[in-house]
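debug: dumping io for the single-chain case to check the tokenizer round-trip. Nothing else runs in this session.
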Amino acid sequence: METFAKTDVGRKREINQDYIYLSDKKIGSFQNLYIVADGMGGHKAGDHASKLCVESMVSFIKNTSIKTPVLIFEEALSYANSKVYEASITHENYRGMGTTAVAATFTEDTVYIANIGDSRLYRISGDISQITTDHSLVEEMVKQGDLTHSQARLHPQKNIITRALGIESTIKADFFEIKYKKGDYFLLCTDGLSNMVEDYDISYTVKHAKSVKEAVESLVNKANENGGTDNISVMLIKA
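debug: decoded output
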């Protein structure tokens, strides 16, 4: 597998509230682990939430005796939620903080995915498909037929998320299990990319780049060229 990741503050924000984790080596029962988180909150709260979330997930995965991938992700997210939520209610500076999270691990022929919030995982194989579903207000409006996907990208309430980690004492995440083939690409990203670069442009850039590193750097550059209104995190895995 070929992998590369980059996170960038963007052109409008002073602090990067995204946090990423990439390991091509064994972590606990997982052969590899990839996580992208997008924090929210005050001046220091958002970056603390995403970092605490990812570090808590990694710690749990390293030490758990659970062997089932989906259950590992479920318990890891629950553990991370408890850590972020506890910090948010005990420290005034962290009050109300939360974070999105999207994570993946690969076996020989299957990728296991977990997500909460609006950070995404795409599969690029022939065409591009969004595997995860945004937990956002505009996504609910799309499902109800009130908005098209194109309208949703420009909607003024596109950043309102309906599920996040650390906001309440319990969470509801989504889990996916899909087969893949050699040569497939999997891209994890925050909305700093998906709000700035159209899906077809993401797909074209990935397919025509000379390497996963070049693809990731090009996507970050495109997001900044299109406004860079948020932090940008991109993680690309070529099976």
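debug: round-trip ok. Helices lie at 45-63, 69-90, 137-143, 149-154, 191-194, 199-208, 212-225.
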